[in-house]
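Here is a complete protein record:
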Amino acid sequence: MDRTRPLLTYLVLGCAATLSTWAAFVLPHHPVTPRENPPYARPDLPTAPPKTLPPQSRPQVDVVFVLDTTGSMSSLLDGAKKKIWELARFIAQGQPAPELRIGLIAYRDVGDDYVTKFFDLTDDLDGVYQNLSSFTAAGGGDTPEHVAKGLHEAVYRASWSPRKNALKLIYLVGDAPPHSDYQDGYNFRAIAMQAKERGIRINTVRCGRDEDTRLAWSEIAGRTGGEFASIDQSGGMIDVNTPFDDQLAQLNRTLTETALPYGTVERRSEIRAKNAAVLAAPKEAQAARASVFGLLGKGGRAAAVSAGDLLDDVDTKKVAVEGLAPAALPEPMQGMNAEERGRYIDTKKKERQQVLRQIDELNTQRDAFLKSKAPAKADSFDGKVRESLKRQAAAVDLAL
């Protein structure tokens, strides 16, 4: 009898059992990637939706200009009125597109017509221009001014954004140092430290060559992580005309005429007065304003021509036409029925979008001209503001 056959049988069965045990423990830890559309897939079973990241809010840019409006600042103020739209456009073209608000504070000194004039942060850029245009240079006399009161208004009264991705900047612009002899509780050093604690940077721009102003301005900026700059007394701004300004100014007028003021009679009159002030601006400023709204109107938005513009407020769902009393509607819509009002809104929106497309086309050509022929002077007021904005915007991941 051959005794080797049972022995071989036992060996084979033993190896098979060992291999089976090894496969049971090892193979699950080394899974094979299934083929695309495997035959064992169950298309009838629900699959988990792809993960999507929550939408990131647009960065907020809050800028308050604190301006010395005493008699020696006349040239600077005149230049700032012409450049405010260019600065607004510089910020508006950032990536990702930011939400922009601007505030204004004028300051003089005790004994002048006023010590401060306060205009809170707002996204109504027409209102900003109107308020800035109302500033005149007068008063002063002795060298120091009430700088601390102006800074106090900016830090404590302005409605700064609480958002984490908000860039909060003050631009202090003047040619004279702060009063240090007033016993009224306003201390520019303490105010600067409070600004830093609130995440507000104070950038200082000295006009002229006063040494006491340089020392104070450098200290204020340094205490908040801001930047100090020095420019010519006049502000160093130059008027720049482009071959596209006439067309853009006309488009600015056409765009403004698409506005649909609504609300009370007084409110509608206020908006019309504001629009009239915009259309009385120099051609350069009107061209820059049109450029700003060309940017804001990208993506099919109606783009608010001014605060209280029904066309934009309907588009952004801030208000519903059917929820307004007839007397609160723009005059041309008051006698219309609901269907006619809807058609009128749609027609006006298409008109505005057509104007905005024309503006956008001219913007590209105007930008190329300005970059090649007339870049902003680095040592001018607008040049210094652009430089610091570009550097500090990185803090909120905004590329300017």
Remarks:
- The longest strand covers residues 60-68.
- DSSP finds twelve helices and six strands in the chain.
